[in-house]
Design brief:
Distance between the termini: 28 Å
Number of strands: 13
Largest sheet: 5 strands, antiparallel
Helix content: 10-25%
Shape: globular
Order of helices and strands: HHHEEEEEEEEEEEEE
Number of helices: 3
Structural class: alpha+beta
Radius of gyration: 20 Å
Strand content: 25-35%
Length: about 230
């Protein structure tokens, strides 16, 4: 994005034609931030966008999978600005996928990072203070909660510190997927077997810390399950 800002600044001063930004910058930094209808119009008017496998006809979308699995074996874990974080059911590998431009990145590695465990893990996509797209992966172990964050810009994983002396690692709690809003990534955590208080876990994307927020009263003693929107 620094390269892009530099190009825009220089052209505004000289009032000349915008220089060639290159397909990598356009595909990785510009198109993922546009609404899908804008990308559809760009597909028809620009020569640098390949066939995307997406037809915006009658508000219906046809998508070609870039991986060799059945559609039923692809789990969508989180979404943000057209990007999807998905898991392949046969290998449990996690990928960042943009269906509109057919861009796909496998974020699993040899250190066992980026592998999703169903019924245990939680995932959320967010944008940090440096405008970098990241994946927050919460892995629950036998006695701990292990949190890792993947950077789309650097292609590396980073360990995060979770709340101390909490019991959210046990199978008695169910985690929702993460919902990104302004400077926070939010998860709902609710008891599975026994009645108890529902909690919202907030991850501050700027200072990279977790906090607990009380869930609004539901009433009638009912258990509320689901994702925030």
């Amino acid at each position: 994005m620094k390269k892009l800002k530099g190009c825009l600044y220089s052209t505004s001063e000289s009032n000349t034609k915008l220089p060639d930004l290159g397909p990598d910058l356009i595909m990785s930094e510009i198109l993922p931030r546009l609404p899908e209808k804008c990308v559809g119009r760009a597909k028809k008017k620009s020569c640098f966008i390949r066939s995307t496998g997406v037809d915006l006809v009658d508000e219906k979308t046809m998508i070609t999978l870039p991986f060799h699995v059945r559609p039923s074996d692809v789990w969508i874990l989180s979404s943000l600005n057209g990007l999807l974080c998905v898991c392949l059911r046969n290998t449990f590998e996690m990928l960042i996928w943009n269906p509109l431009i057919r861009s796909c990145i496998n974020i699993s590695d040899s250190k066992s990072y980026g592998f999703f465990k169903i019924y245990s893990d939680a995932v959320g996509l967010y944008i940090d203070s440096s405008n970098d797209y990241r994946v927050l992966h919460i892995k629950r172990g036998r006695f701990t909660v292990d949190v890792m964050a993947y950077s789309r810009r650097t292609s590396h994983w980073k360990r995060m510190r979770f709340l101390q002396k909490r019991h959210y690692h046990t199978n008695g709690y169910v985690w929702s997927g993460g919902t990104f809003c302004e400077d926070g990534l939010y998860f709902t955590v609710f008891p599975f077997w026994l009645a108890g208080d529902i909690v919202i876990i907030r991850f501050d994307v700027n200072i990279e810390t977790f906090s607990e927020i009380g869930f609004p009263y539901v009433g009638n003693g009912e258990t509320c399950q689901g994702n925030l929107i």
